[in-house]
Amino acid sequence: MTHYGVGVIITLLALGFSQANGNIFERTFKKLHEEPYVPTNQNRADEVQTLWIEQKLDHFNDSETRTWQMRYLLNDVFFKAGGPMFIYLGGEWAISKGRISEGHMYDMAKEHNGLLAYTEHRYYGESHPLPDLSNDSLQFLHVKQALADLAHFIKTQKASYKGLSDSKVIIVGGSYSAAMVTWFKRTYPDLVAGGWASSAPLFAKVDFVEYKEIAGQSIVLMGGSDCYNRIQKGIAEMEAMFANKRGSEVKALLKLCEPFDVYSDLDVWNLFSEISDIFSGVVQTHNTGQIEGVCQKIMAEGSDLVGLSKFLLSEFGESTSKCNDLSYNAMIDTLSDTRYSGSVRRQWLFQTCNEYGWYQTSGSASQPFGTKFPVTFYTTMCADLYGPQFSKSFIEARAAETNEYFGGLTPKVENVYFSHGQLDPWRAMGIQDEKQATIIPKHAHCADLGSISIDDTAEMRASKERVAELVREWL
Ligand SMILES: *[C@@H]1O[C@H](CO)[C@@H](O)[C@H](O)[C@H]1NC(C)=O
Ligand SMILES: *[C@@H]1O[C@H](CO)[C@@H](O)[C@H](O)[C@H]1NC(C)=O
């Protein structure tokens, strides 16, 4: 998932905490929610056109007549009349040209004289159904609306794009957009011939305890159990300090800014949630040597506490003059900004509160990140950000509705290929049965979207070849 490079609004400055380093949550979040990464060739990206299509604000209410413009990208470099359309589905990120200028889907479009498209998900990137992100405006942000946008896009392209009227359509997605591939095939089976879902979380679950368990297992697998133990002991030591009225020592160690209250549950939960998410970022985006490198850094110090805190300080944004604002209110203030700012956290968190949960909590004892980010932390955030109706039971009911509607781990779809990385904690919410999905050893989240390469492991190569073979069958 690549780099937005878009300005981040640091509302902390407006609040007068001018010493604060307000980018920490934003950077960690980006790492976990970026557009799935594919190496890009800038020259080829020049072939991609940026276009807009009119969409209904509400596909499910005929009295609602407002419309908006959805962004999409097209690359026709290989297209010959009658060839298929390959669509990469945008998820919770801004779309970029590189995704359809390189990679395995691009290579398949070349093989089949296909048209390449990349659709942007409503409320992300430049696709703004309404001018702001107020609580009220967010009511039209829902995957069902986004799938209906895609159905309209496909129908419109087939009706208007020269040479496409009889073409078959293949859809591809990574992470959330891979879940969309599955759900689109289920909801609109006649519009697409097949799909490839890389790292698709299909089961909505509020207290997603498995995430940190797999993150821990991946650290053991790649970085060794010494590293896992050090993280576990370092975090336990910090927790004990808070419990024994030595919270101010942790505050000094991690250079936390003044508003951080060592006796506030929400502040402490926010800190430990962020610490664990920094490790999630390392695991989820792992490529050769990444987890190992972090473990080396942590192990290089003389003690658990020093090894852990030195690493965290470097991740918080190395600076001796600044403090790190990890207070709960600082985070809520940033997320309460209803302007489109380049950050997508307000939108994505709303979707989790309203559709999926997927809170990566400390609810399991079989993980190294301690006990201080319970599900209550996340559900409190939902209510504080979007309104008091977002109680835990409401969020659970919404997640259950999602599973009911899309079938959870039994989506009953044909012609969808599921792949996962073994190291990827998200796979716990996906289909992992060997007969239905491919788990690629020692790879992370969405790691298989690039072209077939001599650097691929045998299993990686086999999975990519399987996709190509299935696409030949479907077309
Ligand atoms: C449908 O849209 C109309 C016009 O915006 C609105 O007044 C009405 O409340 C909407 N109905 C539902 C069920 O959302
Ligand atoms: C959204 O809801 C939250 C929580 O109730 C509230 O604090 C906030 O003022 C609301 N914001 C907008 C812009 O509607």
TrEMBL record:
Top-level taxonomy: Eukaryota, Metazoa, Ecdysozoa, Arthropoda, Hexapoda
Gene: Dmoj\GI23097
GO molecular function: dipeptidyl-peptidase activity; serine-type exopeptidase activity
Pfam families: Peptidase_S28
Sequence similarity: Belongs to the peptidase S28 family.
Name of this protein: Serine protease K12H4.7
Gene source species: Drosophila mojavensis (Fruit fly)
Keywords: Glycoprotein, Hydrolase, Protease, Signal
Gene Ontology biological-process entries: proteolysis
Signal peptide start and end residues: 1-22
